[in-house]
């Protein structure tokens, strides 16, 4: 059932173009207009939403963080992301105009389920982004938007992550469409880009030879750091989580802007640091800032493993290794930049002789609080 792959994780990584493509399927008209009648929430109710709170755990919380940047940009609705177990035991500001979006691959995560119940008790509108038809969380929610990644078996989440970003983007674009005017026009243009992503994801997958080689050389590595800004920040967190989870290596993700507020003290000669570089056309000089972060750590001896877009020459002087991904607009980049990190974690686990599908101490779905 692994379809010729060494592991379920390898198979699921390879299935990512389909996970995204199938999640988009049948949800737009030819002209790019989104049709989400399946949501079970009326247009009026959605138009009334003035605040969105995502609740999720682990990888699902990181896809939510990616979505926060996009949805706020497209809709100007404030979006928070709260770890489900923190939301549950806090006193969140939620009312009937708040849309609480839970994100869960399994739909059975107890922490997330309890957060959804808490949100309902507080009068919020609840929507579940879920990969498992008929699971408990979508049943407990007012509405559901399924991801169509297909069953995910490996404990480390990969294709569900990409599908979650896709579904959350659909939700954001739908809200933008409902707002009308330039919001709706912009949403249509983004939809066109989103539909091109499965092909670009495949292109990244076809380029992974060097990443695999790097992982094979790094079996003795004790610590890896990950840096990113904007949507690259949650990707840094996700890259670190994958490595902890399946390769048992100490790994930490930081917002690159935090470096000088502490973490740069960790940099010593030879320290491997992945840096996720935004595309050069990202607004607010973000690209320049990340390039200077690479320069700063390189000057202190870090081994800089840089994930950059095709054609970005600015990173070349400061990169120990460059992993290239196709060009795309800044908010689409997470669907590409996370892939080398998944592949790296998988192959490092394999190089250490570990079973990536079944890491110690972990279960695929965490059904206790
Ligand atoms: O099934 P869920 O998406 O609710 O699971 C949430 C987390 O437990 C899950 O993403 C976990 O962090 C993964 N093992 C990460 O790879």
TrEMBL record:
EC number of the protein: 2.6.1.16
NCBIfam families: glmS (TIGR01135), PRK00331.1 (NF001484)
Reactions it catalyzes: D-fructose 6-phosphate + L-glutamine = D-glucosamine 6-phosphate + L-glutamate
Superkingdom as given in the UniProt entry: Bacteria
Gene Ontology biological-process annotations: amino sugar biosynthetic process; fructose 6-phosphate metabolic process; protein N-linked glycosylation; UDP-N-acetylglucosamine metabolic process
UniProt KW keywords: Aminotransferase, Repeat, Transferase
Lineage: Bacteria, Bacillati, Actinomycetota, Actinomycetes, Micrococcales
PANTHER family the UniProt entry points to: GLUCOSAMINE--FRUCTOSE-6-PHOSPHATE AMINOTRANSFERASE, ISOMERIZING (PTHR10937), GLUTAMINE--FRUCTOSE-6-PHOSPHATE TRANSAMINASE (ISOMERIZING) (PTHR10937:SF0)
Keyword Repeat attributed: yes
A GO term for molecular function: carbohydrate derivative binding
One cellular component term from this protein's GO annotations in UniProt: cytosol
CDD domains attached to this UniProt entry: SIS_GlmS_GlmD_1 (cd05008), SIS_GlmS_GlmD_2 (cd05009)
InterPro entries: GFAT (IPR005855), GlmS/AgaS_SIS (IPR035466), GlmS/FrlB_SIS (IPR035490), SIS_dom (IPR001347), SIS_dom_sf (IPR046348)
Keyword ATP-binding: no
Name under which the protein is recorded: Glutamine--fructose-6-phosphate aminotransferase [isomerizing]
Enzyme's top EC category: transferase
Domain spans labelled SIS: 42-181, 214-359
Pfam families registered for this protein in UniProt: SIS
């Amino acid at each position: 059932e692994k379809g010729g792959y060494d592991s379920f994780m390898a198979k699921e990584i390879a299935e990512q173009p389909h996970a995204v493509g199938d999640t988009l399927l049948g949800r737009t008209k030819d002209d790019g207009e989104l049709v989400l009648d399946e949501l079970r929430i009326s247009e009026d109710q959605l138009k009334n939403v003035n605040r969105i709170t995502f609740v999720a755990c682990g990888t699902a919380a990181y896809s939510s963080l990616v979505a926060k940047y996009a949805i706020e940009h497209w809709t100007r609705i404030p979006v928070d992301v709260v770890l489900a177990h923190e939301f549950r035991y806090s006193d969140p500001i939620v009312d009937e105009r708040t849309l609480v979006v839970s994100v869960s691959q399994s739909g059975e995560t107890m922490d997330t389920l309890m957060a959804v119940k808490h949100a309902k008790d507080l009068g919020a509108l609840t929507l579940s982004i879920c990969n498992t038809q008929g699971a408990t969380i979508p049943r407990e929610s007012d509405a559901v938007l399924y991801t169509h990644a297909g069953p995910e078996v490996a404990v480390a989440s990969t294709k569900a992550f990409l599908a979650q970003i896709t579904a959350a983007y659909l939700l954001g674009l739908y809200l933008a469409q409902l707002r009308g005017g330039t919001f709706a026009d912009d949403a249509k243009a983004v939809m066109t880009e989103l539909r091109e992503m499965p092909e670009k994801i495949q292109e990244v997958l076809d380029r992974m030879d060097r990443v695999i080689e790097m992982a094979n050389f790094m079996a003795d590595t004790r610590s890896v750091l990950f840096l990113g800004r904007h949507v690259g920040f949650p990707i840094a967190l996700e890259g670190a989580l994958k490595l902890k989870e399946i390769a048992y290596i100490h790994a930490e993700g930081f917002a690159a802007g935090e470096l000088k507020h502490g973490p740069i003290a960790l940099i010593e000669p030879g320290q491997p640091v992945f840096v996720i570089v935004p595309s050069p056309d990202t607004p607010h000089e973000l690209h320049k800032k990340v390039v200077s972060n690479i320069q700063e750590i390189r000057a202190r001896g870090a081994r800089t493993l840089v994930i950059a877009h095709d054609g970005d020459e600015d990173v070349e002087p400061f990169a120990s290794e460059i992993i290239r991904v196709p060009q795309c607009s800044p908010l689409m980049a997470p669907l590409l930049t996370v892939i080398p990190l998944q592949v790296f974690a998988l192959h490092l686990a394999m190089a250490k002789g570990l079973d990536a599908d079944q890491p110690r101490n972990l279960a695929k779905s965490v059904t206790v609080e």
